[in-house]
Write a structure and sequence with these properties.
mainly alpha, globular, two-stranded antiparallel sheet, 331 residues
């Protein structure tokens, strides 16, 4: 009798978690079905491929921010980090500003710069006790400042064949950028699922006090998570450079808010401890389907930002209702 009483709440929790996780995929299918019924153009194969290709950069940026959100922190540095990485890679690969032609090494350096800026955010959080939103906002400004200095009033246009091919060449119908994004999602999921860094990111967001009482030094893991997120943003900046064929200070404009929207809509809580890379991947597709669908049915693109804002507010409100007792939104 006692065992039955004990297992009943457990089953209810599992059933509730299953329904909660099924929400975003079901919403994706429903929204796709509605737009497909309203617009023949929307349901065409070419448009579906366009949606997936357009989601590539956002998916990579969202991978990074998902790890930060899982800890219960927030990261607003994506725009600045992407701008710095975009200018770095455009000046290190073959371009019209200098004689550099470092190829893959230039791309790697741009990604590492993103990781270094992410590390700076983490250090400001754990050493200076600066709240994550303020620390990352400052690092974003640093990144934009670095990018502006490198821009120097003359736009660097890339001529590197390999980097240009990322946005132009296709494999199995999808651009190389899409396959890079798919590889990032897989790598992010493996880190989240099978490494101590991923498990501790969950645990920090769910019950940091328990980890501390267990003797775990959480500060290095927090810094590592921000560095990992910065590396994803850096790669995002490289991908935008490939799309534009030039390095721009504004390469990351709007990606910070869109990535947070996608992660939250996919089921990753701002309070941490729930969600993950696969949830965020669904959230990215949901946002992109909604954005594309609104355009296909004739809604002005100027409404898209407003719609994204409404979505993230509604998603956050729905997510925090069951957690009213947790009065801390972000760390």
């Amino acid at each position: 009798m006692t065992a039955e009483v004990a297992t009943a709440p457990r089953r209810q929790i599992r059933r509730g978690a299953a329904l909660r996780d099924a929400g975003p995929p079901v919403a994706l299918i429903v929204i796709f079905g509605i737009f497909a019924a309203l617009s023949p153009q929307f349901r065409s194969i070419d448009n579906v491929v366009n949606i997936v290709d357009a989601a590539a950069v956002l998916a990579v940026v969202t991978c990074g921010i998902t790890f930060v959100l899982m800890m219960g922190s927030i990261d607003l540095s994506a725009a600045g980090v992407m701008g710095a990485s975009a200018l770095t890679v455009s000046l290190l690969v073959a371009n019209n500003r200098n004689d550099n032609d470092f190829g893959l090494a230039g791309i790697l350096i741009a990604v590492l710069l993103g990781g270094a800026l992410g590390c700076l955010s983490g250090l400001a959080l754990v050493l200076l006790k600066v709240p994550s939103f303020m620390a990352t906002l400052g690092v974003s400004a640093v990144g934009l400042g670095v990018a502006t200095l490198m821009f120097a009033g003359v736009q660097p246009n890339i001529t590197d064949a390999m980097l240009e091919s990322w946005a132009i060449e296709r494999f199995l119908g999808f651009s190389y950028l899409t396959w890079i994004a798919a590889a990032c999602i897989l790598a992010g999921w493996l880190v989240q699922r099978y490494t101590r860094l991923g498990r501790y990111a969950y645990a920090i967001g769910g019950a940091e006090e328990v980890l501390l009482l267990s003797g775990v030094r959480v500060k290095p893991y927090k810094v590592a998570v921000f560095a990992l997120a910065g590396a994803f943003y850096g790669l995002g900046g490289v991908m935008v450079t490939s799309q534009l064929g030039a390095g721009l200070v504004q390469a990351g404009d709007g990606y910070d808010f869109s990535a947070i929207t996608a992660a939250v809509v996919g089921g990753t809580l701002l309070t941490g401890g729930r969600g993950g890379i696969l949830h965020s991947a669904v959230g990215v597709l949901l946002v992109m389907v909604l954005t594309n669908g609104l355009v296909q049915v004739g809604v002005s693109p100027y409404w898209q930002g407003g719609v994204e804002g409404l979505i993230v507010v509604a998603a956050v409100a729905a997510a925090v209702i069951p957690q009213r007792r947790r009065n801390q939104v972000v760390k």
